[in-house]
Amino acid sequence: MNKEGRAWHGSCDLRFVNRANSQNLNTYTIHQGSYQAPLKLIRASSRADGRCELPILHTAGGLVGGDHLTMKVLADEGSRSLLTNVAAQKVYGSIGRSKIYPNGQWARQKCHFEIKEDSDCEWMPQEVIIFANGLFEQEMYVELCASSSFLSAEVVRLGRTTSNETLGLGCWRSSMEICRILPEGKSWEFVDRLELSGEALSSEHGMANQPVMGSLVWAAPKSVSQNAIDNLLISCRAKRAGLEGLMSCSSISQGISARYRGSSTQAARFWFFRIWAQVRKLRGLSKPEALRVWPMQEYPFS
Predict the structure, then answer these.
(1) pTM: predicted TM-score of the whole model, two decimal places
(2) Which residue ranges make up each domain of the chain?
(3) Spatial distance between the Cα atoms of 180 and 200, rounded to a whole number of angstroms
(4) Lateral strand order in the sheet of 185-196
(5) What is the pLDDT of residues 260-289, one digit of tens each?
C-alpha cells in the first residue's frame, strides 16, 4: 500500500534480446524494460555463458490486501535469461484488519512469459512468506515454442513459524499454465492449480501441518528425448539425499515437475537448485552459480 493509503498496482515489462560480440563472435543477452512502483529493476549481470541475470526489487517491502503486481516477459529468439528477486516476498495479514473489508482482501501477482524459438528462460524467485490471515493469489501463464525452454522454482512459507505463527484463516492460491505453440496449434503441457487453506493445511493429503511448500517445473525443448527425461528423474530423485521433508519428482508431457512439503525453506531451495544443475547438465549448459543477490551462506549444489 502506498503512502496515500491506496493499494499498489505495480508492473514490470521486460524483453530479453540476444546480441553478438563483434570481438569474439560469442553471443550474450541484454534486457530492455520498464517498471512502475513498487517494482524496480536492479543492475543486471552477465554470466559466463552470456545469460542475463536480472533481479527485481519490490520497494514497498511487502504486499497488503488489494495490492496487485503484474510482470510480462518476452524472451526473444536465442536469448538466455535468469530472473529473480532481491528479497523474500512478504504478504501481510488481511482478514479482520479493516472495518470496510472484514473478510480481507487478496494480494495478487500475475506473470506472463512469452518464450521464442531457441530461447531459455529461468524464473528463480526467493520464497514467499504469508503472514497469519494473509490472502495471496498468483497466476502464471507461459507460452513456449518447440525449441524453447522454461524453468521455474518457487517456495512458499505459510506463517512465520519462528514466531509460532500459522496461516490461520489465510489462503494461498496458485495457477500455472504452460502452453506450447506448435505449427499444428496449441499444446497444453502443464496446467496446475493449488489452494492451501482450512483443512488442506492439516490433511495428510495436503500440508500435514507442515509450513513450507515448494514447486518446480521444467518445460523442456522438444529435442529432449523421453529417455533423457527419464534419466533426469532418476538423477533428481537421488539429489534428495541428506535433505529433510517430503519430496517427489515426476514427468510431464515434455519435462519434469517436482514438489516439496516440509519445514525447511532451505531444504526446498537446495533440492530445487540441485535439480536446476541437473537440467543445465543435461542440456550441455554451464553449471548454475548461486544467485548474486541471494543471501546464501551454504553452497546449495553440493
Answers:
(1) 0.92
(2) 9-208
(3) 31
(4) 27-36, 9-20, 68-75, 107-115, 135-145, 171-182, 185-196
(5) 999 999 999 999 999 999 999 999 999 988
